[in-house]
Task: structure prediction
Amino acid sequence: MPKIDKEFTGQTVITTFEMTPGTAQDLMDELTNAYQEFIRHQPGFIGAGLHMNDAQTRIANYSQWRDRKDFQAMLRSPEMRERNRRISALCSRFEPVMYEVVEALG
Result:
């Protein structure tokens, strides 16, 4: 389970996906399966959350990794490259961006 904490020293990745309402649930299913079957078992994975907007045109994925290299190794694996081809077919675009936690409020 991800925890947003200012003291977190690992890698935070926020990925946004854009799609039509007609493919939103299919994409959510594909992402959920990727996490359940593959991503969560990769070295350095800490946790993730998937969010869908009300219009079903965007999905945001928040994930935490022990290190940037762990995330990059997962992305470069043959398994994830194949999954990303399926994911790409379900959306108009997606973009993973690496972030550092600067502040956590609440």
Remarks:
- The mean pLDDT is 96.
- The two ends are 17 Å apart (CA to CA).
- Residues 21 and 56 are 5 Å apart (CA to CA).
- The first strand starts at residue 11 and ends at 18.
